[in-house]
Predict the 3D structure of the following.
Amino acid sequence: MSVRKEVVERYIDGFRRVDHTQILSCLTDDVVWALLGYTTVTAKESFDKEIRAHRRSIRSKRAARVRGRPA
């Protein structure tokens, strides 16, 4: 398997397992993440903030469902 493919596999695995550290380890400091119809995130630090916010949102929705409230 090529190095690039290995990095992509690690990146996807990190998202599946919600492994923040693994996701970030696959990125360079000058990463650009285009979220079509939403925003473009530039730089590893901004990417980090975006996935932290996404993770908080997911946890909040799960907690609401557990309490019997719609997300």
